[in-house]
Amino acid sequence: MGNYYGPYDAQKILEEFRPQELGITPLFFENSFSCRKCEGVASPKTCGHGVDARVVLSGTHVSTILRDGGQLPTEFTRPGSGRGLPPRPIRNPRSAKQRARRQALSRPASDYARYLAKLKGVIENLPLEQAKRATDIIERAYQTDHTVFLFGNGGSAALASHLATDLSKGTHFPGPASLRSVKRLKVMSLTDNVPMLTAWGNDTSYEEVFAGQMGNFIQTGDVAFGISGSGNSPNVLRALELARTVGATAVGLTGCGGGKMKDLLDCPIIVPSDHMQQVEDAHVILAHLIFLDLKSRIERTVTSDESAPRSDWCTGGVGAM
User: Fold this and answer.
1) Over the stretch 260-278, which tens digit does the pLDDT of each residue have?
2) Mean of pLDDT values over 51-69
3) Which of 38, 74, 40 lies closest to 56 in space, CA to CA?
4) Nearest Cα residue to 170 out of 8, 319, 20, 11
5) What is the three-class DSSP state of 54?
6) Packed helices 276-300 and 155-165: angle between N→C axes, nearest 10 degrees
7) pTM to 2 decimal places
8) Surface-to-core class of residue 221, CB atoms within 10 Å of its CB (0-12 exposed, 13-18 middle, 19+ buried)
């Protein structure tokens, strides 16, 4: 295996290194350039003939060029387009493999950076006023001893369980000791009872799995909080329809323009994105904003001491230690 050189190394190889005397068989790799107007092998970059004189070497051995008196064999040449620069010189096969491996490893990192850059734009345009309205609605339910029902599918089901934990437990623990004697917010996640979900799905239809459960409890003044990235999940829509029928307030986290869901909501919180994963990312952020805002409001009802600990990113929530 000979050493590999780049497109502008030909003249240097012939004039300075004298590869035949060193016992080296150099190779030009695909799309290396040479000059049609020069005697022997040269580069238009160094000889001054410019891009119009370029020809392409396709795996041509320097030893073949030397054997034929320094003239480039016609079967190995074609006029160059003169567009762009030739590839970076490759010094040996091992370094080429190492560079290829580094490039392969860097591609995922670039993908991550692009994803985060797009997500940053979504986060900067979140509907914060609507999130605050949702907190107002939940606070009113808390003050009037009503219940918040949460539901969704897939990742939205996981968020329903997560937010139910934050709102019911995280609003009180950890926190000031005075919170422990204060009433709790009544919250129910309709995604957690697997036997109930499968019973409704099997005996009626999957469209009824949330409305069927909620029908036993929901009443006027309660809050139905649906989560759907597309805004078109049939079982979420069905539960929201039931909520409106009984006079409950309908709140929803959605994206992708809001889908059919937005027309059923008293408080639509629509993430400005059609990318489902980024919609779900934003939903988690909005859920935490709602939770932390409510926690702070409840804390203020039991203490007027401004130096008392306030809700922040290191207290409360799911799995808090």
Assistant:
1) 999 999 999 999 999 999 9
2) 47
3) 74
4) 319
5) strand
6) 10
7) 0.65
8) middle
Other C-beta atoms lying within 10 Å of the C-beta of residue 290: 24
Q: Which of 11-33 are b and which e, b meaning 16 or more Cβ less than 10 Å from the residue's Cβ?
A: bebbeebebeeeeeebbbbeebb
Can you spell out the DSSP letters for 63-84? HHHHHTTTPPPGGG--B----S
- Edge-to-edge strands of the sheet including 147-152? 186-189, 147-152, 223-228, 249-254, 267-270
Structure tokens at 296: 């702070």
Residue ranges of E strands in the chain: 4-5, 27-28, 32-35, 54-57, 147-152, 186-189, 223-228, 249-254, 267-270
How many Å apart are CA 228 and CA 255, to the nearest integer?
8
Classify 104 as helix, strand or coil: helix
Q: Scanning the structure block, which residue is given the tokens 């054997």?
A: 67
CATH topology of domain 127-300: Rossmann fold (3.40.50)
Residue-wise pLDDT for 41-54, tens only, equals: 555 555 666 555 55
CA atoms lying within 13 Å on the CB side of residue 33 = 24
**Residue ranges covered by each domain of the chain:** 4-94, 127-300
Q: Which residue has the tokens 């409305």?
A: 211
